[in-house]
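Working notes for the structural subgroup meeting. M.R. asked for a predicted model of this chain before we commit to crystallization trials. I am recording the input and output together here so anyone reviewing the notebook later can reproduce the run.

Input as submitted:
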Amino acid sequence: MELRHLETFVEIVRQGSFWRAAETLGLAQSTVTLQVQQLERVIHVKLFERHGKRVALTDLGRGFCDQAEEILKRTNALKTSMRDLASSESGRVRIGAIEPTAGVRLPKIIAQFCKQWPRIELTLTIGNSGSISDRITTGDVDFGICALPSVRNGLRFDPLFTERMVLLFAEQHPLNQLPRINAHDVVKHRLLLPERTCPYRNKIEAALQGETKVDLHITEIGSLDALCRTVAHGIGVGIVPEILAGSASAGTVGRQIDDIEFDMVIGIVQKTVDANPNAAVQALLHMIKSELREPNVAKISKKELLVTAAE
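Returned structure, recorded in token form:
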């Protein structure tokens, strides 16, 4: 069964005669007749009954006509979809991002992208650096914004900015009375930290324990937003991205720890060998780089990146 046979059949039904269908399709009437005969032989069904110069569908022909029209409708929709994809007018873009980038930095960029590419279906997956890297490897997302993957098989990392970390505590907390805050001051208090899969958590623990050599009193809170809000109640201190500290719950203070630096490089993670990302993916990547890339981030050395990966 050929698609052209279905198109000819449906046109005969619309026109009510073979010769009118032939005229509409720009075919000889003998060609139209031959195509119907070939179609009837393939499906083993008589489709038309002749009444003079006009034709009428048989009972089986009417049932076949409904299905043929549906097939042609789906085929035309598929052709349109493929044309749109080829011209990048529609399609799908899938990205992954860690917090707080997903919730603080990306909304403005996504809004701008959706205005420029209104027919693109965009999916944002929020997770930790490990899960996002895994999704990139398996092809579930097109690219991610996260810390340098600890395992970079088949992945490349393009630095965007440095996530600066600060100590966060309630205004009435004793630490707020100190002119300078050191690691030894911090570890005396309960630490509110994100889950172990969070790259910030690993860096914070390694730095504090390496500096103080003491066990840490940790309360684990999986959401950075919830962590900031809990800090406001004065039960402990958190070490969070500086961009979150500015929007944290009222009654909190963000301060630097003078003898430790927790800053972490965040960048775009993609497959090393990418199968020609479509124009929409490339456009979103360009927007993200234009909006988020810091001027000095390109100066980060390979050695520094490798150290970050090891941590």
